[in-house]
Amino acid sequence: MKDFKLKFQYSIGKLDFKEILLEVAVKLIDKAVKTIPEDVEKAIVEAYETETSEIGVKMLEAIVENIRIAKEEGRLICQDTGIPVFIVEEGLETPWRADYHRIFTEAVSKATEAIPLRPNVVHPLTRMNTRDNTGFRIPVLHVAKTKGSDIKVSFMPKGAGSENVSSFHMLTPVKTVETIKNIILTRVVEAGGMPCPPTILGVGLGGTSEEAMLMAKKALLRPIGDENKDSEIARFESELLEAVNKTGIGPMGLGGRWTCLDVKIEYAYCHTASLPLAINFQCWAARRASAVIKPNGSYEIS
Amino acid sequence: MNLDITVPVEDVSNLKVGDVVYITGLVITMRDQATKRLVTYFQSKIKPPLDFQGIPVFHCGPVVKRTDKGWTVESLGPTTSARMEDLLEPFLKASGVRIIIGKGGFSEKSTEIFKRFKAVYCNPPGGASALLSKSVRRVSAVYWLDLGPPEALWLLEVYKFGPMVVAIDSHGVNIYSRVRESALKRISKIVEGRI
Fold first, then answer.
1. A56–B contact, CB cutoff 8 A
2. Residue-wise pLDDT tens digits, A189-231
3. What is the rounded distance in angstroms from the CA atom of residue A160 to the CA atom of residue A86?
4. Mutate to test the interface with A, among B33, B131, B136, B174 (most CBs of A within 10 A)
5. Cβ–Cβ below 8 Å for A185 and B187
6. Which residues of chain B neighbour A62 with C-beta distances below 8 Å?
7. Rounded to an integer, what distance in angstroms lies between the CA atom of residue B117 and that of residue B106?
8. Which has fewest Cβ within 10 Å: A73, A130, A186, B32?
9. Does A70 map to a domain?
């Protein structure tokens, strides 16, 4: 133990990692609540151009207009600025170390006042509002170790309309692909207009109950058009997308061709006796922003 | 059909499912906690802080900012009305409200309630708050801030607020349940690859 040297650092020279991370987090929040990722915007415009129902076209037209106004005038995309969720992938070789939760809490509180965001966070029983979008265990934070020397921070403000219809199903292993498809379609139909369709569906398949839910949430960070690396899973993703768009639920649940913009599946192996299935809905306002922080403290936001 | 509506609204029987409407005048925002409190007030014969007669109720929790000149609305859009479904009947009965604005609508069991109280449900695009907030002229009043800003009652003056689709009318038509029922019937066919 005598030779043990602390390799991780809070600051190197003049660089203070706490300040860098705080700056990154505030920028991510600001970007995420005011702009829609390019891939999502492209998919919405395509939906608008190819929607067949008159009401659906009216809704999508207003949504396209909304995205433009938000971008041009720096307004919020949606008034439900959600519950703050941070997902961190920390490279094993990074020199940096930080108390993520403390720094993200400060960032959320600052952004809530500066932007401003809607104060959404309350105690689960008393419903007392904390007024700054932070609270016990909020922001939600998931940290995972990964290869390399970068730290990737992703921010997802998750609205309640889509989060409230998300679900978990513990299936028996003899259930088939058809059963999975049936459950997902039924959930989409039951959800109707509540999650603000056209949605993006995050699906977690396998693992354990908590792992499946987390995979479903993390799947939503993948851009539209990105296919799962596993070809069989990728095929299932496109099959599900096609199936969901045959339900006719349509934009805002008012009927039409576009119910869903994309389906993303993340999977893990699971117990021979179980088949966990998690579904996390994302509204059309699929807000997310990420930053990659390099070992020298520089960062890039996307 | 595109229609401009001026508040107060007493008769909505001319509105049909599929019509696109824009509202000018007052709207009052309301969601879970305020709806619950109001229904308790009505049932206990306590006078609510304002008269709802003829004013559209908007299921919404706005983003507000307090400035030197008072409150401003930074952003607003519809929230999911289904959470208020259990209180729909006592609310419509006691309030005299004829227009409810929100997203996601109500289930088939509420279609008859809208018919009975001669009310309609209008759906603006969910999440389109940058667009919708442009039509807010000013905050007229706020009540029940103790519930927290998103849950308070915000009386707003709006100009050509929309577009909104009439999705449940006073004649017993409900788009959501129609779309949902037809979708439910399709599920097994979709899974089996028959459509």
1. no
2. 999 999 999 999 999 999 999 999 999 999 999 999 999 999 9
3. 16
4. B131
5. yes
6. 124-125, 128, 131, 163
7. 15
8. A73
9. no
ipTM: 0.94
Per-residue model confidence (pLDDT) at position A13: 79
Whether residues A137 and A277 share a domain: the answer is no
Confidence of residue A273 (pLDDT cuts 50, 70, 90): very high
Residues of chain B in contact with residue A122, where contact means CB-CB under 8 angstroms, are 148
Question: Which CATH number goes with the domain that contains A100?
Answer: 3.30.1330
**Total number of domains constituting chain A:** 2
pLDDT of residue A14: 79
**Could A253 and B134 be called an inter-chain contact, meaning their C-beta atoms sit closer than 8 Å?**
no
Report yes or no: A79 at the B interface, CB cutoff 8 Å: yes
Structural domain harbouring A236: 160-282
Structural domain boundaries enclosing B175? 2-191
- Give residues 175 to 234 of A whose Cβ lies within 8 Å of B: 178, 181-182, 185-186, 189-190, 192-194, 196
pLDDT digits (tens, 9 = 90+) for A64-95: 999 999 999 999 999 999 999 999 999 999 99
Q: What angle do CA A66, A67, A70 make, to 5 degrees?
A: 85
Q: Is residue B62 packed enough to be buried (19+ CB in 10 Å), middle (13-18) or exposed (0-12)?
A: buried
Whether residue A273 is found in the same domain as residue A192: yes
pLDDT over threshold 80, residue A158 = yes
Distance between CA atoms of A222 and A6, rounded to whole angstroms? 35
Residue A8 has pLDDT above 70, yes or no: no
Contact B191 A185 (CB under 8 A): yes
Instruction: Please determine, for residue A15, whether its predicted confidence score (pLDDT) is greater than 90.
Output: no
A265 close to B (CB below 8 A): no
* pLDDT of residue B65 exceeding 70: yes
User: Sheet containing A199-207: which strands, arranged edge to edge?
Assistant: A167-171, A275-282, A199-207, A260-270
Residue B123's closest CA among B64, B184, B179, B53?
Answer: B179
CA atoms within 13 A on the CB side of A120: 23
Is A193 in Cβ contact with B103 (below 8 Å)? yes
Contacts of B187 in chain A (CB under 8 A): 182, 185-186, 189, 247
**Amino acid at residue number B143:** Y
A45, part of any domain: no
Could you tell me the CA-to-CA distances from A91 to A94, A148, A277, A294, B193 in Å, in that order? 5, 5, 29, 10, 44
Is some CB atom of chain B closer than 8 A to the CB atom of A120? Answer: yes
Residues A148, A91: Cα–Cα separation, whole Å: 5
Under DSSP, the state recorded for B100 is E
Contact (CB, 8 A) for B149 and B76: no
Give mean pLDDT, residues B27-46. Answer: 97
A23, A145: one domain: yes
